[in-house]
Write a structure and sequence with these properties.
Oligomer: single chain
Order of helices and strands: EHEHEHEHEHEEEEHHHEE
Mean pLDDT: 89
Helix content: 40-55%
Number of helices: 8
Number of strands: 11
Radius of gyration: 18 Å
Strand content: 15-25%
Number of domains: 2
Structural class: alpha/beta
């Protein structure tokens, strides 16, 4: 489906065949897509020009995708970023999220998977839960500054981690499924696609909460159902 207003997408990938394939599918789906094969050039273009989305391979000449992601995220906090990782490289996915990536694609990937993730990131760019403040079970979550504090301890949160907390807080009277989080927080149109995104974000978020308040749980996992905040 051709879109009325073309989103501008930069793809940084040093495999010429893979780059060509990605550009073809993006253009076919109505996007204005450009590709570069060098990491340093990708960083320069990503900082100097305006893109709705940047897709980064991890392994690149001159500069790796994690470094590019981190630098762009510092200068452009709202930039949509997807990283491309090797299949089974969960460490790369975690590192990518730490660097500020919104989502990931693993090689080899289907065209359907690419488009589901691209469209989800484009939908949620600029559509965060807001700058809400939540005070719950001794932790103050500051949505505006992306920090959580308990006593004298504080940690920085990613926008997605804050969105998870805010969404669970808004719906604290019930269990929220992983599929619902993908639809409401990540804005996936096809939430049945296989992804470890929610699990990895929950793991990181729980570690930060443990740092603040110790082993006392805040987010409960209900096996086979989803997640909920434990009552105050």
């Amino acid at each position: 489906m051709i879109k009325d207003a073309k989103a501008h997408i930069l793809v940084v990938e040093d495999d010429a065949a893979l780059l060509g394939g990605l550009l073809d599918v993006l253009v076919f789906n109505g996007y204005d897509a450009r590709g570069v094969e060098d990491g340093g050039q990708g960083l320069s273009e990503g900082l100097e020009e305006q893109f709705d989305l940047i897709i980064l391979d991890v392994m690149l000449p001159t500069l790796d995708g994690f470094s590019i992601c981190g630098e762009i995220r510092k200068k452009k906090p709202g930039q949509g970023i997807i990283i491309i990782t090797a299949k089974g490289a969960e460490d790369d996915i975690v590192t990518g999220f730490k660097a500020g990536a919104d989502d990931y694609i693993t090689k080899p990937f289907s065209l359907r998977e690419v488009m589901v993730r691209v469209e989800a990131v484009l939908r949620r760019t600029g559509k965060n839960m807001g700058d809400e403040e939540v005070d719950y079970r001794g932790i103050f979550f500051d949505g505006k500054n992306l920090k959580a504090r308990a006593g004298n301890q504080s940690v920085e949160l990613t926008r997605r981690e804050m969105d998870i907390i805010i969404y669970l807080y808004r719906n604290q009277d019930r269990i929220v499924s992983k599929k619902e989080l993908l639809i409401e927080v990540w804005h996936y149109a096809d939430a049945d696609i296989e992804t470890r995104t929610v699990d990895i974000h929950m793991l990181k978020l729980r570690k930060k909460i443990t740092f603040l308040i110790g082993a006392a749980p805040l987010i409960e996992t209900v096996r086979g159902e989803g997640y909920r905040l434990l009552p105050e």
